[in-house]
Amino acid sequence: MSGLRSSQVAAAAGVNPQTLRYYERRGLLAAPRRTLGGHRLYPAETVAVLRMIKGAQRLGFTLDEVADLLDTARHQGRRRADAGLRTRTRAKLADVEARIADLREIAGTLRAALDAGCDDLATCADSPCCPIPFAVLSEGAPDVDPP
Question: What pLDDT score does 11 carry?
Fold first, then answer.
């Protein structure tokens, strides 16, 4: 029987063997053949699939999103799979860019708080020069009476 054992696949893809079993349970990897002794034997292309999974994760795709992309690629023509990837990549890029914009705004506010000398949250909240948007944070929040 030819194929790669779990340890070989894991080493080649830079993951641990438990990751293989987890991805198998999640449906990201097809169940491998087994030797008479019960050892898993993966086809060589499993390494490429694992590298795709890890690459997609580094780009911010969740395992559910990766599973969807892999499933689309497996069950439809290449042209259709590419369309799914392009659509999901555009959506992921928009999400990342929105998070970057939020983080830039947060970084600016934190810099302004440092520049304003905010050392104590309660004191800063009462100061008119405090750049931290306490009022925005509390808008729409339910009034809570202390116990």
Answer: 95
Answer yes or no: are the C-beta atoms of 95 and 60 closer than 8 Å.
yes
d(C-alpha 45, C-alpha 66), whole Å: 17
* pTM (2 d.p.): 0.69
Query: Which two three-digit tokens encode residue 143?
Result: 């009034």
C-alpha pair distances (Å), 57 with each of 54, 73, 120, 143: 5, 17, 39, 40
* CB neighbour list of residue 41: distance below 8 Å, 6 or more residues apart: 1, 2, 3, 4, 5, 32, 33, 34, 35
Over the chain, what HEC string results? CCCEEHHHHHHHHCCCHHHHHHHHHHCCCCCCEECCCCCEEECCHHHHHHHHHHHHHHCCCCHHHHHHHHHHHHHCCHHHHHHHHHHHHHHHHHHHHHHHHHHHHHHHHHHHHHHCCCCCHHHHHHCCCCCCCHHHHHCCCCCCCCC
Q: Which of 13-22, 127-136, 137-146 has the lowest mean pLDDT?
A: 137-146
58 neighbors 50 (Cβ within 8 angstroms): no
